[in-house]
Write a structure and sequence with these properties.
Length: 278
């Protein structure tokens, strides 16, 4: 599969999401919530996998954490969930090519973002009843990373978020050029590990992270206000990373090829219609 075919896959995904929102809005909201839930599962998997490494200050903590957190994108892609950050890329290329409108984009982005947040919060509220986080005490990786993200400056969060969704969207886009499904999954996990290990900010992952930290007894340094301080610049940074550096750039790079491909599709459609009339 080449870049044009990959972009066509993104376009079809955007159109499908638009149709789902128009015809079955509740289904769309639930699928968006599932993305938040799946990220919650990945955070807990990461927490339990690396907390011992973190407490012992092991140099492999970040690498192991990145590889384990990569399961989040696999769950989302293969579990049929709707992720806001991926939609920034899907809808940019689709709207630039005229298959979806700016209003379609706004509606999907808005409901998807809300659904992702609700899913992460619902997961956190239910998971808090297990006592698993509480058993780890106050000196655990989840609280440490939450506190770190809160104390970055607004500009630092914004720029980290740009790089984050640039890499996350690459983790969606590049595997579409691979034919082997196992290779696709491995590439997804490796590229997600790049953003995780680099310390970038993903607004949906951070919403789930802060939800998990705030719904259980936590250090005073972790607060709702601090979470908002992180999430707002992360949101806009993620949009730029996915829309500008992935959706716009790859659509522009393949503009001539996409126009030829679209013309061929239209000609084929007209030909089929003519034969049916005949």
């Amino acid at each position: 599969m080449n870049e044009v075919e990959a972009l066509e896959g993104l376009r079809k995904k955007a159109v499908k999401s638009t149709q789902m929102l128009q015809l079955r809005p509740l289904e769309y909201l639930v699928r968006a919530m599932l993305a938040g839930v799946f990220i919650g599962f990945a955070i807990i998997f990461t927490l339990k996998s690396i907390n011992g490494f973190y407490l012992n200050e092991s140099p492999v903590t970040t690498l192991v954490g990145g590889l384990t957190f990569g399961v989040a994108l696999v769950l989302i892609v293969y579990g049929g969930a709707e992720l806001f950050t991926g939609n920034t890329m899907y809808f940019t290329t689709s709207t630039m090519r005229g298959y979806t409108s700016k209003m379609d984009t706004f509606k999907v982005w808005t409901l998807c973002f809300i659904g992702n947040g609700l899913g992460g919060l619902a997961f956190a509220l239910l998971f808090s009843q297990t006592g698993i986080i509480q058993e780890l005490g106050m000196d655990n990786w989840l609280f440490a990373v939450s506190e770190t993200k809160i104390h970055h400056t607004t500009w630092e969060i914004f720029t980290r978020a740009i790089f984050c969704n640039w890499m996350v969207c690459l983790a969606i886009f590049i595997p579409k050029n691979m034919k082997n499904e196992l290779a696709q999954i491995m590439m997804m996990m490796i590229l997600v590990a790049v953003f995780f290990a680099s310390g970038f900010d993903h607004v949906i992952a951070n919403m789930a992270l802060f939800s998990l930290a705030l719904v259980v007894p936590h250090p005073e340094a972790i607060s709702f206000a601090g979470a908002i301080h992180n999430l707002i610049p992360a949101l806009f940074g993620n949009i730029i990373g996915g829309a500008l550096f992935m959706g716009m750039i790859y659509t522009w790079l393949n503009k001539s090829k996409l126009e030829v491909d679209q013309s061929d599709q239209e000609a084929a459609t007209i030909n089929i219609a003519s034969k049916q009339k005949a």
